[in-house]
Automatic annotation (TrEMBL):
<keyword id="KW-0893">Thyroid hormones biosynthesis</keyword>
<keyword id="KW-0712">Selenocysteine</keyword>
<dbReference type="InterPro" id="IPR000643">
    <property type="entry name" value="Iodothyronine_deiodinase"/>
</dbReference>
<comment type="similarity">
    <text>Belongs to the iodothyronine deiodinase family.</text>
</comment>
<protein>
    <recommendedName>
        <fullName>Iodothyronine deiodinase</fullName>
    </recommendedName>
</protein>
<dbReference type="GO" id="GO:0042404">
    <property type="term" value="P:thyroid hormone catabolic process"/>
</dbReference>
<dbReference type="GO" id="GO:0042446">
    <property type="term" value="P:hormone biosynthetic process"/>
</dbReference>
<keyword id="KW-0560">Oxidoreductase</keyword>
<dbReference type="Pfam" id="PF00837">
    <property type="entry name" value="T4_deiodinase"/>
</dbReference>
<comment type="function">
    <text>Responsible for the deiodination of T4 (3,5,3',5'-tetraiodothyronine).</text>
</comment>
<dbReference type="GO" id="GO:0004800">
    <property type="term" value="F:thyroxine 5'-deiodinase activity"/>
</dbReference>
């Protein structure tokens, strides 16, 4: 869900968040769509985004709140087979 930024097919349209209440409302709306991943909420200062931002894009694996895998810069440095191998070893 990217408020007022991206126009993707089947995207849920949400106005840009002006308050933490806006973010809570957006998160609840997203949960109504039954996503296949956890939904988390960042602060209005975007602290998590700043700490974990993948710019340039990267593949990460987080385990118990810690980064256990940080891939190379994407999209050319993506190694999904490496991620799959690590995730399978976690089972």
């Amino acid at each position: 869900m990217h408020p007022d930024e991206w126009a993707l097919k089947n995207n849920v349209h949400i106005k840009k968040h002006q308050s933490i209440q806006d973010r809570l409302t957006a998160a609840r709306r997203l949960l109504e769509e039954s996503p296949s991943c956890p939904v988390v909420l960042d602060s209005m200062k975007n602290l998590c985004s700043a700490k974990y931002a993948a710019l340039p894009e990267r593949l990460y694996i987080l385990q118990e709140g810690k980064i256990t895998y940080k891939g190379q810069m994407g999209p050319w440095g993506y190694k999904p087979e490496e991620v799959r191998f690590i995730l399978e070893k976690m089972d």
